[in-house]
Design a protein that fits this description.
There is one protein chain. The protein is of the alpha/beta class and 652 residues long. It folds into two domains: 332 residues, Metallo-dependent phosphatases (Purple Acid Phosphatase, chain A, domain 2), CATH 3.60.21; 279 residues, 5'-nucleotidase,  domain 2 (Alpha-Beta Complex), CATH 3.90.780.10. Helix content is 23%, strand content 29%. The protein has 17 helices and 39 strands. Strands 9, 10, 12, 13, 14, 15, 16 and 17 form an eight-stranded mixed β-sheet that branches. It has a six-stranded mixed β-sheet with strand order 6-5-4-1-18-19. Helix 1 packs across helix 3, helix 4 crosses helix 12 and helix 13 packs across helix 17. Belongs to the 5'-nucleotidase family. GO terms for molecular function: 2',3'-cyclic-nucleotide 2'-phosphodiesterase activity; 3'-nucleotidase activity; metal ion binding; nucleotide binding.
């Protein structure tokens, strides 16, 4: 199958509107330029539309990325379009298909339809592909006009990886024809192999246990890559739905792209899962990584953001010698679909491709109707602008709903009568999501889109039975959100930028303070770093210091109870209840039953006083509307900050 230019790209390039990449321009006879294009973590974002805010936006959407695809093809002689996983779940369109329309055999999922429209060459599975269950997944991928691969999810395990029966093919070898610098055509066999974090067995255990197993990413690569070479693969590209993490390999690691790049025979790595951009400053200083050159273990790599925000690019200049291809030179890039100005303005760099919009127009309109349904009212605004520095109403309503539900579920069980706590985290709290990435629901009607905004993921409710000592350690793990603060110093940065907000669990039903002068007990991965650290102070239950031996039920979700985030006590072994209901559905039922909810924060957690000490934190600029309502902290506005955020000072 030869590479080809679209008519639009051909006309643009021949008219001189789009310059060829230097590799294509200078390739000689026997040399060819191959371009690898990557999308990753699309999460059903086809339209440039925020269904939660119910408005068009310019920062997301495969329809926008599609315009980059046409340009990239026009700049190069030969190109492959590849997806790196997490395409089936992640916005209300995904939920509408899963929960309303369904995916019966023979149906076509809208994101697959859009990808078919663009002519993707291959994709791998991401961890969120498993959120709706295996039948939904398999019926969805059946409609793809391109191979979908994953080497480390297996239906039955053999003695070694190459003897496994995998859920989907572990790899594919594409027979293509490259055009060299002299216009001559040459055959090439391009091997593609895919990987997903083994932690899916924890995160979606209710769907996967007894149906599939996982292998370690690097173990699977070491087994399959030699086999791919034996089958004639000239070059091998890893589609790694796994973040850029430690350089040293440990079995079962979630973010394994660095040791994966070190596997002999892998020539390039397309990464994802982290929702970051590579090459670029996000990974500056990471071991084994050159964040400027765009290499991992010396090999070309890229990570194309998320939701279609960027097109990841790896350019390879290949030379054919003795009937074999070798890489002469390489470059990496992550090309954005928009530019954020110093004044916080967003300027799109491309327009949507009509064919992609039209391919899913019916599902887009149905999703709009789905998210606009009112389910109840709130008599107070629900926002997450200050969720990382004070008890917060958007987290409070989630906790209230979870406690309400688990209290009913415990009736008539041998756990009835134990005190029920509830753990919930703010999902939309800025960070790498940007200055607009916050929950903001005005008082009045609450629609499904608002509930989906409060709780982004289709997690199911779980309950764990743990001790008071576990509760304290759970909170110590959450306390990693904050940097260690030096008493008596002013204007120190409060938040740890490498700590995701979804791991900042607030536990309702107890009261406590965080002493920021102490170091964090746990590192970013949840491993004990400072065993004697004691950030959580004045932890009380029912007005008295918590009894370390007392037992509690904690309402949470399947990700956390399955070990996600590595929280003490939150384990499958301690899980006593696995709900058939999603956390979102529970929130909707709670609102429907209440009619009108009053989710006011109760300030059950605060910072321990540190005299003469101030800290700084950034949040969305629209938070100024609510700054005077924040309880439990002395907060002072400081003005505009970088990348569109707004800065505040807190006196501890």
């Amino acid at each position: 199958m030869p590479f080809h230019l679209s008519r639009r790209s051909f006309l643009a390039s021949t008219a001189g509107f789009i310059a060829l990449h230097p590799f294509s321009a200078r390739a000689q006879a026997g040399q060819a330029h191959l371009r690898l294009m990557e999308t990753t973590d699309l999460h059903v974002h086809v339209y440039p539309y925020d269904y939660y805010a119910d408005q068009q936006i310019d920062t997301v959407g495969l329809a926008r990325t599609a315009a980059l695809i046409e340009d990239v093809r026009a700049e190069s002689t030969n190109a492959l379009l590849l997806d790196n996983g997490d395409f089936l779940q992640g916005n209300p369109m995904g939920d509408y298909i899963a929960y309303e329309r369904g995916m019966p055999e023979g149906a076509l999922h809208p994101v697959i339809e859009a990808m078919n429209t663009l002519g993707f060459d291959a994709s791998t599975l991401g961890n969120h592909e498993f959120n709706y269950g295996l039948p939904f997944l398999m019926n969805s991928v059946a409609g793809a006009d391109f191979p979908i691969i994953s080497a480390n999810v297996v239906k039955s395990m053999g003695g070694r990886a190459t003897e496994d029966q995998t859920l989907v093919p572990p790899y594919v070898i594409l027979d293509r024809t490259l055009t060299d610098g002299a216009g001559e055509a040459h055959p090439i066999r391009i091997g593609l192999i895919g990987f997903v974090p083994p932690q899916i067995m924890n995160w979606d255990r209710q769907h996967l246990e007894g149906n599939v197993q996982t292998r370690d990413i690097v173990e699977a690569a070491r087994a399959y890559v030699p086999q791919m070479k034996e089958e004639g693969a000239d070059i091998i590209v890893a589609l790694s739905h796994s973040g850029i993490g430690p350089a040293d390999w440990t079995e079962g690691m979630e973010n394994a792209s660095v040791p994966l790049a070190g596997v002999d025979g892998i020539d390039a790595v397309l990464t994802g899962h982290h929702h970051r951009v590579f090459p670029g400053p996000d990974y500056e200083g990471s071991p084994g990584v050159d964040a400027t050159a765009g290499t991992i273990m010396g090999k070309p790599a890229t990570m194309g953001g998320f939701w279609g925000s960027h097109m990841g690019l790896v350019d390879l200049l290949l030379a054919r010698e003795g009937g074999e291809w070798r890489i002469v030179s390489h470059e990496s890039e992550a090309r954005p679909i928009y530019i954020r100005g110093e004044d916080r303005s967003i300027t799109p760099t491309v327009e949507s491709v009509d064919a992609v919009l039209e391919s899913v127009e019916e599902e887009h309109e149905a999703t709009l109707a789905y998210v606009r349904r009112a389910v109840g009212k709130t008599d107070a605004p629900l926002h997450s602008y200050f969720a990382l520095v004070a008890d917060d109403p958007s987290v409070q309503i989630v906790s209230n709903a979870q406690s309400w539900y688990i209290e009913q579920m415990m009736q008539g069980t041998n756990h009835e009568g134990l005190p029920i706590l509830s753990a919930a985290a703010p999902f939309k709290a800025g960070g790498r999501g940007g200055a607009d990435y916050y929950t903001d629901v005005e008082a009045g009607d609450i629609a499904i889109k608002n509930v989906a905004d409060l709780y982004l993921y289709p997690n199911t409710v779980r309950a764990v039975r743990i001790t008071g000592a576990d509760v304290k350690d759970w909170l110590e793990r959450s306390a990693g959100m904050f940097n260690q603060i030096t008493p008596g110093e002013e204007d120190q940065e409060l938040l740890n930028p490498d700590f995701p907000s979804y791991n900042f669990d607030v536990i309702d039903g107890v009261t406590y303070q965080f002493d920021l002068s102490e170091p964090s007990k746990y590192d970013a991965e949840g491993n004990v770093a400072n065993p004697d650290a004691n950030r959580v102070k004045n932890l009380t239950f029912d007005g008295a210091p918590i009894d370390p031996d007392q037992e509690f039920i904690v309402a949470t979700n399947n990700y956390r109870a399955g070990g996600g985030g590595n929280f003490p006590g939150a384990t499958p072994q301690n899980t006593i209840f696995e709900a058939p209901d999603t956390n979102r559905d529970v929130i909707v039922r709670y609102i429907v039953e209440q009619g009108t909810v009053s989710p006011r924060a109760d300030a059950n957690w605060t910072f321990a006083p540190l005299e003469g000490t101030t800290v700084l934190f950034d949040t969305g600029p629209l938070g100024t509307r609510y700054a005077d309502q924040v309880q439990g902290v002395d907060i002072e506005p400081m003005g505009e900050a970088q990348e569109g955020f707004y800065r505040y000072r807190i006196a501890l």
